[in-house]
């Protein structure tokens, strides 16, 4: 899908053998992510959103594509 058409990105965060599970005032959600800023790549969005939502720093080199959108 062309980058300019993708407005949001979600990711699954693995730490060792565990998956990071998020919970906030809106409820529980296992997939950090949200809006992609203009000019930012999928990986840029994942790194920023995971940091904002979980406090974890994501190594850009560890980002792997899942499905047909990333």
Descriptors:
single chain; 70 residues; alpha+beta; two-stranded antiparallel ribbon; two-stranded antiparallel sheet; 19% helix
- Which strand order does the major sheet show? 1-6
Mean of residue pLDDT values: 81
Shape: globular
State the major sheet: 2 strands, antiparallel
> What is the gyration radius calculated from CA atoms?
12 Å
In percent, how much strand structure appears in the residues? 15-25%
Outline the low-pLDDT stretches. Answer: none
Structure class: alpha+beta
* H and E string: EEEEEEH
Task: Describe this structure in a few short sentences.
The chain has one domain.
SSE diagram, text form:
Blueprint: E1 8-10, E2 14-15, E3 18-19, E4 22-24, E5 27-29, E6 33-35, H1 42-54
Antiparallel strand pairs: 1-6, 2-3, 4-5
Describe the structure.
The protein has 70 residues and is an alpha+beta fold. It has one domain (3-60). Helix content is 19%, strand content 23%. A two-stranded antiparallel ribbon has the order 1-6. Strands 2-3 form a two-stranded antiparallel sheet.
């Amino acid at each position: 899908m062309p980058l300019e058409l993708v407005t949001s990105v979600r990711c699954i965060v693995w730490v060792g053998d565990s998956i990071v599970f998020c919970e906030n005032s809106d409820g529980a959600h296992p997939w950090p992510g949200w809006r992609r800023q203009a000019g930012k790549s999928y990986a840029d969005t994942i790194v920023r959103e995971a940091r904002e939502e979980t406090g974890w720093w994501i190594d850009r080199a560890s980002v792997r594509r899942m499905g047909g959108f990333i």
